[in-house]
Amino acid sequence: EHKDKQFKIDDARRRNPRKARKKTLVVAGNDEVLKMPYGGPETKVFDGMHFYIMTEFIKPVKKSKAELEQLVKANGGIIVQSQTAAKDVVCVACRNLVKVASLQKSGTHNIVRPSWLFDCIKQAETDVGRPNVRLPFEPEHMFFVTESDRGLIELNIDEYGDSFAQDVTTETLNKILGSMPSKFDTNRDRAEILGELGASNAELD
Questions:
Q1: How far is CA 60 from its chain centroid?
Q2: What's the pLDDT tens digit per position in 87-128?
Q3: In Å, how far are 25, 40, 141 from 168, measured between CA atoms?
Q4: Which residue from 96, 170, 188, 205 has the highest number of Cβ atoms inside 10 Å of its Cβ?
Q5: Is the dihedral of CA 182, 183, 187, 189 positive or negative?
Q6: What pTM did the predictor assign?
Q7: pLDDT tens string 124-177
Q8: How far does Cα 104 stand from its chain's mean position?
Q9: Which backbone phi and psi does 8 adopt, to 5 degrees?
């Protein structure tokens, strides 16, 4: 009778196996749950650097705070939860939340936009096989710049906004060309131009 009962229990277990629960990934020091593990490129471009991710990324691709933290960790970075947790912490934000505004008011740290993270990783992928070199901060990467660093960051681009370190894309090239001033005055009439050339309409017709 005992064996028969045990057989029935074992048979029931085989028919209804327990489904293993999928563990969600939680970033240490953060209450936000990451629903999908990071599956992007992995480089060492942020190796040894400390990052304080303060907000999510909104444009052009929405990424939660937890996803940005995973992105940084997958590429060698270390996540901290305060700008004072380590030396030379990189503060990242693109929204003016209370803690972000407070940090701006203190004037002690630059705040970089999340786009800088993606640009660094993209450049590291392009430079595969060569030493990883982080892109310097450029004006378009900055959410807030301290007075002492403003002039230095401006030196990382030319007069037209072209980066000295980052590879140009079709999109950025169009943007740069669009911002360039015209070298010729197109409002001048034909007679004025011919007069400067010492020619006449009759000579050219």
A1: 10
A2: 899 999 999 999 999 999 999 999 999 999 999 998 888 866
A3: 36, 22, 15
A4: 96
A5: negative
A6: 0.61
A7: 888 666 666 788 888 888 999 998 898 888 776 666 655 645 656 666 656 655
A8: 20
A9: -65, -40
